[in-house]
Amino acid sequence: MKETILKRELQLTEDHHQTNINLPFDVIEPASKLTIHFAYNPDEAEEEVAKEKILAALQRFVPESEQKKWGNIERYLPLKNLITLSLNYEKTYVGAHHRKDNHQTIVISEHGSDKGFVKQAINAGGWEIQLNAHCIATKEVNVSIQVEVER
Amino acid sequence: MNQYPVELHAHTHHSDGDFSVTELVESALDFGYKGLILTDHNTYSGYEEIVDKLLDQKLVILRGIEWTTYFGHMLVHDSKDFVDWRTATIESIGHHIDQVKEAEGLVGIAHPFAIGNPICTGCHWEFQVQDWSKVDYIEVWNRTAPHKQFWSEKAYDLWTSKLKSGIEISCSAGRDWHRPDAKGLLPGITYVQVPDKLEQSTMKAALKKGSMYITLAPRLEWTLTSQNIDYSFGDRVPEGTYTISVSCLEPSLPLLKELDIEPKRILVIQNEMIIEEIELSKTSASFRFDKTLASGYVRVEIIGRYQNEEDIRLTIGNPVYLK
Questions:
Q1: What interface predicted TM-score (ipTM) does this complex get?
Q2: What's the rounded Cα separation, in Å, for the pair B170 and B159?
Q3: Cα separation, B284 vs B114, whole angstroms
Q4: CB 3.0 to 4.6 Å from A106: which of A36, A45, B263, B267, for a disulfide?
């Protein structure tokens, strides 16, 4: 039997760039499996905005003498938002799947979890999702999280 | 002493790599590595798979993680406990490094001068490190063809500036391996030097001590001998007169053997001053001479031609420190 134990819709803005957003939740009874549906949109910046941000980065990080080799803005497009989801059970870090994928379904169980997450029994207790906003390149990003347990 | 090629920076599909764990291990074996540290971004789950599938019986593998934070990427090698990367701020990194050290982990600064946010998030090192002596190594070479990348020169300058200021710190090479590399592109290799067999414990001890060198191809052997005791990469020795033995040797890895390179000279460097320059007339040669060494450090480089480029640092040895 599946039960939804957390459902959140969040709107992140540029102010959340390089910050963490904590979403604690409790598992009341032990379960066999925990599934997190995680999505965010949009996943990339509009081209004009992206080009501006890329240009600023190239000016900051690439020496003048190397601009010819590295300075072509087009090669870095599209510029994607990057939000990763990390998970804790009590004080134990379960993992994160660090890649540019704005639709993830993450299954956690004691027999095997999805990539990026170690095996973890779905014990009763305090759990916490943390959204790690590595890059917010758009004005706003809409994030949806749904956590289900299966007994 | 024996030398073994190891890869210190590699990823799988447990983070943003394309390799499965099995593919990474098979690729490492095919290339000729004898040791590997799996350093997926912000997770240990790939290592769990290595243990489950007994892949660590085919290759010496250590558990690692690449802290992929907002202000820098840090290689944490063989930490006994998980140390949380998520709370690291520009000012607090020293505290986090202390936590890694308490967990017996090794700390390497990955690609400190890579192009950073938002092109590669957190890739450029912005953390303020108060005590550089707690950093075990700086990844002076990152990815393939490191001699062509501007960030290598900057990282080399950072490393040597720390040495000059009296800090004992090593250089390392990391392939930052995510997927098969384009044909013809080769990484810098880290060779660890251990007394006997490569095992998890000896590999870690070599990395901790700085008993290692990095190379684009030629192998390097060198010792400082005094009173019938030999010292080498990473050793701490008293000031005095030593017999220095140094050898430039043919590459050992199959793909490196095919490279069109020509080692041309060996530099013996003390406190960033060249104290001996030896011209090489063949690709493999050994030399022996006496030197009186004052306090500081002494290290060796091999310079030469790499394909059509001259005056390339082909090999960089970590120092012997003199007290």
A1: 0.96
A2: 8
A3: 34
A4: A36
